[in-house]
Amino acid sequence: MPTNASAAVESLEPKAVWQFFAGMAAVPRPSKQEQRIRAHVRKVAESHGFKVKEDAVGNMLIEVPASPGCEKASIIVLQGHLDMVCEKNSGTTHDFDKDPIRLVLDRDENGEQIVRADGTTLGADNGIGVSLAFAAATSRDVVHGPLEILCTVDEEQGLSGAKVIAPDFFKGRRLLNLDSEEDDALYIGCAGGCDTTLTWTLPTAPPPAGSELLRVTVSGLRGGHSGAEIHLNRANAIKLLVLTLTAAGDLSLRLAAINGGSKRNAIPREATALLAAPAGTREKLAAAARDVQAECARYDGEEKCSIRIEAAKAQDVAAVAGAADTSRVLTGIIGLPHGVLAVVPEIAGLVQTSNGTTTVQSEPAAGKLRVIVGCLSRSSSRPQLDATARQIRAIAALAGAEATTDNGYPGWSPNIKSPTLAACRRVYERVFGKAPRVTAIHAGLECGIIGERMGEGAMDMVSFGPNIKGAHSPDERVEVASVRRMYDYIVAVLGELAKA
To answer: What's the confidence (pLDDT) of residue 369?
Structure first.
């Protein structure tokens, strides 16, 4: 039976990890609003006598003295981010600006003990990584050299905290990033990325007389991380919504609103459109919805997918775009890529390039309807990343939308000869009796940006972490046994590096 209580979570081992994590879960920490969690972390750090400093945007550095006899070892940077993705199920009442995350101790479908949240994202990404760092730094029986715990802000909405870190903000040049989500892997590379935004501004008018006023809703999808889980072919609620609206051909639909997804780095789980249409359209859309829903369950594994066609209230469809303009928006969204675009030839199964069409929102604006679609492209190849952004802008031009590309960030090029990697490999084999996977991740780790900020070749970095599934969705959960394993591992790694 699941236990909905932070006390049960705090009793787990290693207690230092779970107590710190429960403390973080009690403090709201949306991206760009980290002031409360920063104050919490500062209080904890200073209670242990650690020096704390912050930069202008809120990135924090906690200086931890070495264990006795290890003062001459190289400084090790333990790095994670303070913010979390804020997603909740449609039936969940939760205010991420005010409410603590409600922790649940449960078991997954395989009987594995897990910690999850009650209807929301958990924040194990990256709260568990930060908690592992603090637990290792504050436990008296852990042997380590000088440590710097680097806690960045606003990672989840553009990695903007890492982008402004000054080269002299910290001293260490060996960095352990604790923001990975598979405990059998050591990551030594990641994808770069960029955002492309498409905007249509459409004139509106009252619906034609005799129109059916309809609400079309897609819900029940699994969602997930738009980089690390893009290869799983999980259904996209925005794409399903538009596919439903266009499956029966030209129905002369007139759009009043369209909204779906909430984070560019999360596969959208829900989407809704409000529209006016000629009489008899509801039955045609209902038939299309049944077909799309069945295909989604059959081919995408989305057994809980629900596509509903309902009557809308007149006040919600008081002004609509024209049929031709609506068609341009819908066909433009259909044309946008979503999913894997290329794989790395040298590494089987590793995505090289992808695009996520992950957000759509609409807003009335002085007699017009503005529709804004957000895409997040990722690639470990800069030319392919640029080509993907150009493709999206070309689709926008054909569909009559304005398009801008910004918020780019670099990838992290693997260094297979890294001394830190060699040490991490040795320790992994000693602790677990097997070799780790050494690979790269198709997601944006801050290592790429930190490496660029510090200067080419200046940083020696490895990323690892416990098993976290469903990140960026309310299905997010972390395996309790995996946290135990990763704590033992980081303790052993720090002991090994303290000899250097």
So the answer is: 98
Residues 328, 433: one domain? no
Burial of 381 (0-12, 13-18, 19+ CB in 10 A): middle
Here the CATH number for the domain that contains residue 259 is 3.30.70.360
Same domain, 69 and 163: yes
Task: State the Cα–Cα distance between residues 150 and 169, nearest whole angstrom.
Answer: 9
Is the same domain home to 383 and 238? yes
Cα 107 to Cα 356: distance, rounded to the nearest angstrom: 31
By the 8 A CB rule, do 329 and 239 touch?
no
**Domain end marker among 369, 393, 409:** 409
pTM (two decimals): 0.82
Range list of H helices, 433-479? 446-454
Question: How many angstroms separate the first and last alpha carbons of the chain?
Answer: 47
> For this structure, is 148 an active site residue?
no
Closest CA to 424 of 438, 441, 445, 440: 438
Selecting among 34, 83, 125, 302, the annotated active-site residue is 83
Give one word for 314, left, alpha or beta, with left for phi > 0 and alpha for psi -120 to 50.
alpha
Q: Over the Cα atoms of the chain, what is R_g? A: 24
pLDDT in tens, 11-28: 999 999 999 999 999 999
Predicted pLDDT at 161: 97
What's the average model confidence in pLDDT over 132-156? 97
Instruction: Report the DSSP beta bridge partners of residue 272.
Output: 217, 259
Element (H, E) at 293: helix 281-300
* Domains identified in the chain, total number: 2
Output phi, psi for 386, to 5 deg.
-65, -40
Tell me the one-letter amino acid at 351.
Answer: V
Q: Say which of 87, 148, 155, 325 is annotated catalytic.
A: 155
Which of residues 362, 387, 409 is at a domain's end?
Answer: 409
The percent of residues above 90 in pLDDT, for the chain, comes to 89
Answer yes or no: is 1 within a domain: no
Asked whether 341 and 388 are in contact (CB, 8 A), the reply is: yes
Say yes or no: 186 and 200 in one domain.
no
Helix (H) / strand (E) containing 282:
helix 281-300
Domain extent for 125: 6-191+412-497
| Token pair belonging to 363 | 């807003």
Task: Centre a 10 Å sphere on the Cβ of residue 1 and count the other Cβ atoms it contains.
Answer: 6
Task: Based on the residue annotation, tell me whether 83 is a catalytic residue of this protein.
Answer: yes
* Eight-state DSSP code of residue 12: S
Tell me the C-alpha distance between 377 and 392, whole Å.
Answer: 10
Which residue, among 177, 175, 163, has the nearest Cα to 55 in the 3D structure? 163
273 has which bridge partners? 216, 258
In one-letter notation, the amino acid at residue 37 is I
